[in-house]
Amino acid sequence: MKRVNVRTPEVMELVQAEVADHYRSSIVEKVRAKGGVLTIGKTTIRLAQQFGFCYGVERAIDLAYASRRVFPNRRIFLIGEIIHNPEVNRQLEEMEIVSLPWREMDEQYDDLTEEDVVIVPAFGAPISFMDKVESQGCMIVDTTCGDVMKVWRRVRDFAKQGVTSIIHGKADHEETRATASRARGEGNGQYVIVLTLEEVDFLCSYVESGGDHDAFFERFAGRLSEEFDPSRHLDRVGVANQTTMLKSETEEIQRRVRDAVVRRDGSDERFLVFDTICGATQERQDALFEMLGHHMDVLLVVGGYNSSNTSHLVEIGEQELPTFFIRESGCLRSMEEIVHFDIHQKSEVASGLDGVFDGDELVVGITAGASCPSNLIEDTILKVFAMRGASREEVEAA
After folding, report:
1. Annotated active-site positions, please?
2. Rounded to two decimals, what is the model's pTM?
C-alpha cells in the first residue's frame, strides 16, 4: 500500500500553529486552570474536567492539515468526514480537501489516479474501500485512531479462532462498518451487529436455546456477515464494540451474553471479551458523572449531531437535569429559545427554555465529546454570559 508520511518536523511545526489558530481557546484554557468554574455576578459556568479533542482526533486533524502543506498542488480526497464535527470538516473543505462518499463507492473512486492523495478518517474505512484506493495507485494518508485499530485486532483474532464477533455499535456508523469488514478475517469470520439491550436479549435467547431462523434474519437484516447461520455461528462468541459507545451499556451487553453462554454450556469457555471502549470516551463519560455531583440548572453538550460519543453524553445528562445537545453557540437563540438535537426524534428542534436562563442565580454546565474543538466551547461560554448581561471583556477580566 502506497502510504505516505507527512509528519516531518518542519511541516508539523507549521501545522500545529495553524490548528491552534483555528481551534484552540485561551478563555477555555484559563477557565480550566481555575478548576473549570467561572462566576460573573450571579451566573456560573462549570466545565467538565475532560471534554473536547482527544489525542486521536488531534492527530487526524494534524495529518489532514499536513497533507495539504506537503501536497499543495495535488488533488486531495477524504473518505467521508475526518471526524464528526461540521466546523472541522468546513475548514478542510476550504483547504480544497474533497469528501468522497463513504456508504457506497461511486464513479469518483474510479476517477482517482496515482497522482491523488486520499486521507483515511479517524474512524478508519472498510477493507473494500482501502482495496479500491490502493488499486487506483493513490497515495494514502491514514489517520485511523489507534483505539479503533485495537478493536480491529481483536475481531481479526476472533475470526482466526472461529469465534463470531458480536459488535456493539451503530450499524450505519463509519467505524462499525470498518470493524465489521475486519471481523471477516481472511473471509471466513462471522459477525452480528447489535445496538440495544432489547436486541441483545433476543440474541441471547437464540444463543441459549435456538429459535426461529426467519425471525433472527428479519431482526438483524443488514447487520450480519454474508454466510451467517445462527444455528452454527453462535456456538463460540466474542463481544467487541464501536469505541465510542456508552461504557455502562457495553458492559451490560458483555454480561448478558456471557450469562447466556454459561446457562447453555455450564461455563464461559466459549465466550471471549476485551474492553475496547476508547480511553477518551471513557474519560469524558466519567468526567460528566463527576460533574453531575455538583449543582447545575442546565447542561449544554456541544458537538456534531452525528457524533456517537457526544450523543452518549447527552443520554447521561438528560437522566439528571435539562440537557441540550447543541452544534454551536448560535443554537442559543435567546433567553426563551434554544435549537438543539433531540436524540430520540433524531432531528433538530427548537424548544422553549421555560425560564431556565431567567433565574436569579444560574449554573450552566458545559461539556463536549472528543470531536469538539475548544473554540466552539469558548463561543458557548461567551454566549451564555452575554445572554445574562456579561460582555466578552468581563469574561476575559474574570
Report:
1. 175
2. 0.90
